[in-house]
Amino acid sequence: MNPVVASYIVTFLKPEMLHVYRQVTALRRWKNVVFCKKRENHERFPFPDIRLVPKSPFHQLRRWWQKSVRDEPITIGASESRRLLAEIAASGAKVLHVYFGHIGVHLLPMLSKCPIPVIVSFHGADAQVDLDRPKHAAATREMISIARLILVRSESIGARLREMGCPPEKIRIHRTGIPLERIAYRQRTAPPDGAWKCLQACRLIEKKGLETTLRAFAEFHRHYPAATLTIAGEGPMRERIHTLAAELGIASEICTPGFLTQEMLGALLAESHLFLHPSELGHDGDQEGVPNSMLEAMAAGIPPLATFHGGIPEAVENGISGLLVAERDSAGLAEAMLTLASDPSRYAAMSAAARTRVATQFDITATVRALEEFYDEAAGLTT
Predict the structure, then answer these.
(1) What's the whole-number mean pLDDT along residues 169-191?
(2) CATH topology of domain 4-177+363-379
């Protein structure tokens, strides 16, 4: 019988968490039982074994007290902790895997009593936001001290946690897994009519560098007036995108279709030429790990134009599988776009190199095999 891992994911699942769904459904040697407070998008993310442990009826009062009065992280109460421990015990799990570092902090009262080994995975913002606040940082350090292993999506996240005091021997690099067999690769060639189709797919938030994208595209469009830009996704910057596009005189060349299903995104990837993702450090400290949408674009054969930010340089070999510029450097990004567009042979070579990079470093078969080995290690099942 396969050993059981209990995966805790607060909401199973938000639309932007496809990468998590791919991971929890790809295990082979371990059986996954998911615990959550709320289930959403049932049809999009079916899963056979989900245990709901809802919020305590006193959650809002506890939230107000901890956040507004004590200025400390919001954690679960004693009754919710007991219910969750009982449910995990009933599942027969040998390991508890908590998705996202700040959720590990939320579960701290339960983790301190958890009788099985705990693994916590950090994905990006959860290694940055609020950690300049003393009580949040202290709670994160306590959570890390309890965890058997800490998984990080990139070396940059690992470095941040080491700076906080996480013992290096606890940290394991665990890359985002991309199902290559589900992403059609097409060798890209430069459009003969100059009708470059540029794409950015992401949540519409500050750290995605959307203003840099628009300013760079405006300059690129001056040289290639048939070029277009699609920005796919939802978020609070949607209105700002339209306002800035109008100010830059490119409103008619910009398409914002909103959130796309995987099938719709696949169709868009198939017809695009350049993928833009000029991530930047947000004013709240929010930082990328390795953007999943960028990896999918690379797997499809689209060269990325991105930034020296977070884990991006760990995925993109600058000058080989993509081009990288400094954060917030719209002029540099425009120059990179023009450089690639003016050199068809280099563009074609970079298309092939982008697919190869993802295939060798981010294939989900290899990343899930590594994850199961981490479960083995935490549970003491290694030989």
Answers:
(1) 95
(2) Rossmann fold (3.40.50)
CATH topology of 4-177+363-379 equal to that of 180-361?
yes
Beta carbons of 208 and 201 less than 8 angstroms apart: no
**Which contiguous run of DSSP H or E holds residue 278?**
none
Query: Domain locations in the chain?
Result: 4-177+363-379, 180-361
How would CATH label the architecture of 180-361? 3-Layer(aba) Sandwich (3.40)
**Please, what is the average pLDDT of the chain?**
94
For residues 112 and 296, what is the distance between their CA atoms, to the nearest angstrom? Answer: 38
Distance between CA 269 and CA 302 in Å, rounded?
8
* pLDDT for position 127: 60
Cα–Cα nearest to 38, from 59, 22, 19:
59
Distance CA 367, CA 23 (A): 9
pTM: 0.91
Residue that has been written with the tokens 């109460």 in this structure: 77
pLDDT score recorded for residue 60? 87
- pLDDT-derived band at 382 (thresholds 50, 70, 90) equals confident
Type of residue found at 224: Y
DSSP codes of every residue in 105-159: HHTHHHHTT-SS-EEEEE-SGGGTTTTTSHHHHHHHHHHHHH-SEEEESSHHHHH
